[in-house]
Amino acid sequence: MATGKNWDLIEALFDELVALPPADRAKRLARVDVPQDIRIEVRSLLDAADGGGILDMAPPVASAMTDAQYSSLAAGDRIGTFTIERLIGRGGMGEVYLARRTTADFEQRVALKLLRGDVAGRGDLFERERRLLARLSHRGIARLIDGGIAPDGRPFMAMDHVDGTPIDAWCRANEADLAKRLALFREICDAVGYAHANLVVHRDLKPSNILIDRDGCVRLLDFGIAKLLDDSDAVPATTQAMLTPDYAAPEQLDGDAATVATDIYALGAILFELVVGAGPWRREGASIPSIIRRVLHEDPPLASKAAQRPDAPIPSARIAGDLDAIILKAMRRDPRERYLSAAELADDVQRHRTWCPSEPAPAPPDIVSAASSAAIAGWWRRERRRCRPLPACPVRATGSPDRSRGSSVSAGGRPFHCGARIGRRSGCFRARPRCSSASAHCVAPAAE
């Protein structure tokens, strides 16, 4: 298998060969003087580019306007008890219309979703989405109201109509500050955590599926390729073609089973975009294969480094440290190294907000998270100037400010690794006999 340093050569060969006819590709590839493992990787990318999968997808922005111009229903058409008003949008599997239901007692406006006629064979996925939504009742998730079969035989479902804006566009339009962006992100984590608690993995989290309504609240949409964690039926492989590679976890692109960690990765990518104003993987002119290659074989860039540009919504200095560490931990390529839950991710974001507010923070408590090391380092330096130094501590946290992972000691006295960075002058951290978290960092108070 090719190593990471060879991927520039693999990408260059792919870009050279992909435009050639298949017969010419094979001849050219056979003449290239490269190791066999690189030749195999290039051939697999070329085969995938010829197939009907994710590599054939146009970037979402490029296809949105074309899709929205087509509508299989006209204003005034009746679907069950609902009257169609207008098309809202089209996705990979369905069309969504604004519709209304009027009775003697009330009038109700809904988002009515139908299976698209050109994907009628995917009715099993549509039925899956209806079943999943029926399990969920949360203020941050669009609610299922009704369902049935349209006169032309297509299944439909009526959901809460969310009059809102995608979260990335909302933040730009409202010039949201860092505190607001992090507060909205915690609302997303709360909704995703609720879905996970009900054994539902979304699998397609991205800004366009997260709306901010008129009240400024998060509403999570589109469970079209979601799955049940306890579902024994295999999810059809064709759903991989519906993924958005900018937010898809490496294991999704590799065809492995989706877990809670899959959504955690997407949450990390969303947090990156909220604080940077752009996604971690997409570059100007980047092809879908190059994005997939980077997701599979590279670590995401530091958010603070990506924010070093004039139009960044948040200054790089506000991101460096804790938020860099939190994002990197959520987006680890190995699912086992990510946060265990959406709640754990949200807790670290909240701890960052507590210790790095716009106003001075109070002294920290005894137990802090891994993501608070940068704030504690500053607090500790201030304390050392006014307090007598502690005796030498037999247990010290080690690490480098230039690395995203540090070493420390767990409550049981065994070394462990965390996702946050630990600075050179972060003070003396001692392991307690028992903490609320098995891997908490506990700071010893200075002697008076």
Description of the structure:
The chain is built from 15 helices and 16 strands. With 448 residues, the chain is of the alpha+beta class. The chain folds into 4 domains: 4-50; 62-160, Phosphorylase Kinase, domain 1; 165-352, Transferase(Phosphotransferase), domain 1 (Orthogonal Bundle), CATH 1.10.510; 362-443, no CATH class. Strands 1-2-3-4-6-5 form a 6-stranded antiparallel β-sheet. A 3-stranded antiparallel β-sheet has the order 7-9-10. A 3-stranded antiparallel β-sheet has the order 12-16-15, with no helix packed on it. The longest helix is centred in the middle third of the chain and has 20 residues, at 178-197. The protein starts with 6 loop residues before the first helix and ends in a 5-residue tail after the last strand. The relative contact order is 0.08.
Summarize the helices and strands and which ones pair or pack.
Blueprint: H1 7-17, H2 22-31, H3 36-50, H4 60-68, E1 78-79, E2 82-90, E3 94-102, E4 107-115, H5 123-135, E5 144-149, E6 155-160, E7 165-166, H6 167-173, H7 178-197, E8 200-201, E9 210-212, E10 218-220, E11 227-228, H8 250-253, H9 260-276, H10 288-297, H11 303-306, H12 316-319, H13 322-330, H14 342-355, E12 367-368, H15 373-386, E13 406-409, E14 415-418, E15 429-430, E16 441-443
Antiparallel strand pairs: 1-2, 2-3, 3-4, 4-6, 5-6, 7-9, 8-11, 9-10, 12-16, 13-14, 15-16
- Apparent shape: globular
Strand order of the largest sheet: 1-2-3-4-6-5
Number of structural domains: 4
Mean pLDDT value: 74
Q: How many strands appear in the DSSP assignment?
A: 16
Name of the CATH architecture of the largest domain: Orthogonal Bundle
CATH class of the largest domain reads: Mainly Alpha
Poorly predicted spans = 51-68, 232-241, 388-448
- Backbone CA Rg: 25 Å
Q: Helicity range of the residues?
A: 25-40%
Q: Count the helices. How many? A: 15
Looking at this structure, what is the CATH superfamily of the largest domain? Transferase(Phosphotransferase) domain 1
Distance between the termini: 59 Å
| CATH fold-level name of the largest domain | Transferase(Phosphotransferase), domain 1
Structural class, by secondary structure, is alpha+beta
What fraction of residues sit in β-strands? Answer: 15-25%
Largest sheet: 6 strands, antiparallel
